[in-house]
Amino acid sequence: LVADEKLASLFARLGDVQAAERLCEWLLGQEEAPLGPYRRACVEATLGDVRLQLGEPAAALAPLRAALPVLSSYGDALGEARAHELLGQALLVTGEEQEALAHLEVASHHFQAGEQWIDATRVTEEIEARLRRGALSQAGQARAQEIVQGQVRRQYPGAYRHPLLRRFKQLVLASLPLVVILIPLWTCLLYTS
Fold this sequence. Notes:
- This protein has helices at 2-14, 17-28, 37-53, 57-73, 77-94, 97-113, 117-133, 138-149, 163-192.
- α7 (117-133) packs antiparallel against α8.
- The radius of gyration is 24 Å and the shape is elongated.
- The chain is an all-alpha fold.
- The mean pLDDT is 89.
């Protein structure tokens, strides 16, 4: 069953959400060899993630809320942080802004405490994007600003390259063959004349 749980998580990460959802529901429905509380919570968190990816945030709430206390009691800070992040995203979509921001703040703190800077940055960037779009209420904007300012360090999965610099690099690389060919031709023409 542990292999099936990991397979469901892998399906979810790779984007095969239908297969992940079927596998999660099968695992949660097992009566012959039921999952232990921790494994069950991990599968519920994966199911919540899958339902959120499927665009069903209301259906994601129940498994995520069920997984949180168990993950917390087992001391899985990173699993708990991920569940808080997913629950916060689902709550934002369903319109429960204050509770969502509370969960996202807890997720950010757990990620920072575990030195998972890329995950903490992802949470903060999502909140900042909502701030820029004006998708939060006045009270939500103040709370979101506090969360963003509480981020002590940011780290991105790859080096950030400004779009203008990328375009300049493409232009230079595209013009380099022309320069390499045209300059010698031009000097040959000048030399022969």
